[in-house]
Each structure stands twice: as C-alpha cells, then as structure tokens.
Specification:
By secondary structure, this protein is mainly α. Helix content is 82%, strand content 0%. Pfam families: DUF2568 (PF10823). The chain crosses the membrane at residues 5-24, 36-54, 66-82, 88-105. Keywords: Membrane, Transmembrane, Transmembrane helix. InterPro entries: DUF2568.
Length: 121
Amino acid sequence: MLFLLAALVVVEFVAWLILSMWGWTIGSQWGDTAGAIGALAAFALVVLAWATLAARRAKVPQGVKWVAKAVILGGAVATLAATGQIPAAIGLGVVTLVLVLVCETKPVRETLDVLAKPREA
C-alpha cells in the first residue's frame, strides 16, 4: 500500500513540475526573470489548487476532487504532448491513470484513509 501511495505522490509532484515548466515557457517570452516568475507562480498555483481541491484531506465533494485531479494531472500530460514529448506524455498518462484508479478502489482508499489520520497522543 505504501508503495502505491509513494508512487502516486511522485507522479503528482512530477505533474506539478511539468506545469511549472509550462509557466517558465510562457514567462520566458519576456526574458529569463519573467520565466522564473512564471515557473514559480505556476508551481504555487498548482500546489494551492491541489491542496484546496484535490488532496485527500480537502474539504470538498469527491466529484470536485476528481475534476481537480483530472485538470491538473491531465494538464501535465497535455503540456508534455504540446511540447512534442509524445512518448513521455503517453507514459505519464498511463501511469497516472492506473495509479489513480488503483488508489481509489475501496480497499486501498480505506487503508490510505487510516494511514492519513493523525495519531492521537
């Protein structure tokens, strides 16, 4: 179970970095400083959106979590595809889809929920 969770966290972080790369690409049209600001802003916005809408502990309906995950993770796949990295986009898309679907099955989700609960002193 922990391997699945660790793999999903790595995939999520890779998606955040890919979207930061998109921010760099957009901002760098106006110079390197703007590229760095674009990358940092994109990363901050993606992490904020993930924390408030897609995280396991987010206080939103499950449907909102699914849409947020689809937009963020799908956006990373689309960014790779748009930059011409088709094999990487396909690989990331397949791995992400399998991990998300496996981690959302009832037995895995229940185990992960137990692991995510804070310990009482």
